Amino acid sequence: MNIAIVMLVSGMALVLAYRYYSNYISRAVGVDSNRPTPATTRNDGVDYVPTRPLVLFGHHFAAIAAAGPIVGPTLALYFGFVPAWLWIMIGVVFIGAVHDFTALFVAVREGGRSVAEVARKTLGKAGFTFYIVFAIVLCLLVIAAFLQLTAVALTSLLPPDDVSLGATTGGIHLLEHDGVMKVQIGGVASMSVIIMTVLAPFIGWMIYKKRANLWLITAVALVVSFGSILFGYYYPVTLNPNSWIIIITCYVFFASWIPVWIVLQPRDFVNAQILYLGLASMVVGVLGAGIGGAVINVPAFNLDEAFSAPNLGLIWPFLFITIACGAASGAHGLVCGGTSCKQLSNEKHARLIGYGGMLLEGLLALCVILLISGGMDFEKYKNLVYPAAGASNAPLAFALGLGSVLETGVGLPKVFGTIWGILLLEGFLVTTIDTLVRLSRYLLEEFWVTVLDNPPAWLKSPITNSLLIVAGFLSLTFTNAYLKIWPIFGAANQLLAALTLIAVTAWLAQKAKTYWFTAIPAAFMVLTTLTSLVILLGRYIRLESWTLLVTDIFLLGLAVGVVTLTFRYFFNLRANLAAQVGK
Hints:
By secondary structure, this protein is mainly α. The protein has 21 helices and 4 strands.
């Protein structure tokens, strides 16, 4: 089938879902445009700031959009195009977007408090503690997986023939690897990363100290973005993966506790320019390639008689936890209840920000499977992502797919499109890593205050808690490849989404509102993720992956605890309602 037709049909389905299903949920939960939001009633000019909806949408999308909807669909495409496409479409409409919308709405109704605080109100202190600990473990898994993926992306090499390198695309450096000359695709991104990070404090100074004009800052950010790419094209950096892991770890350690305006926020601002242009280029590339005749080259189904795929396992539950963020993401609840709920100027905008933002992430995941399916044959895909020998390189499969469709669709030389793909993915990866390390520090500090009435000063120190987070994710990074980490990360991420939906369902039930649209997805996600965690226990024992085995057992314990608290809550709620009726 032509990839442009699939894109247009899928896009129309997403538009209809936003128009009708999100409108139904909005009415069911009781969105009230006349009700003041915390951003207006508690406006402090720091955290609680009424923000224009389109500005907040951009901020929110930049916060939730990460490498997950790129890497997850890339890995899951091995099940076949149809299963991957179906779950992205169904999952994002009925679970992922519902999760983000309702989590944001409830956080707003609770005065701008996090979903963990909502869990405290409905499930008690134990539910709050379970949620915080679960969120920290999820962040550690995400950071570990993304750190490895970053190292893989920044050291990617390709034979010149794979990117049609010819006389018209001269200037890029070749490197001898295993006796073969290869293109330093990742080396270009490496130099770009260094330049953007070094110049980030200058951008921050312009934004926060000089209060420069926004258009001027944007122009400077674009010059920095594309200037760094051009410089990297002629002067790529060559380092090994472990060196990059150590360098990025040092960067995120400092970025997690120094003022956000110095590095983290300005670097994200620069990366955002690449993010939006990248998504636009993917859509244009898929449509243009489809017009040029590109079709899906991946089998509709790649399953054996037991409905399994090699390297992945049973289609249920592993399809769902492999695609992960492309259809639903528990990490989004942390953003909804952390920052976005404090900036929403009107409740009616929750639908655009929450439901619409997740639909856009679903569009990103859709683009990924279409550009890979239409940009390379299945054997090439398998050799890159699931090679018989050597390490997996999902980032390169995505980048090469984008390079191919951009060449077919708009005539851009494949080598440039492939470099653009690596840069795009790197922007998602590093931006997510530094944000999550800082967020993990916040969560850990909140955890100490919760479990200890008066924690010692050293446990309140941002530097101490940053070091604890660094130790946690490095213990996972250096003992497991990202392909081993991804299933448990996906399970944890989807399970956190289920826990958030449980907390939201309990809140809606407490308010005597309709809640089937959160309860059914919560039940499905709990069953799916618990099943995957149980199956993974045997896999980690066979592989002797002891750190992942311990993490798996820990997650199972936390999940069982939350489910038990939930049943107790609804049992007590039912008993109280029966008693009131009896009176």
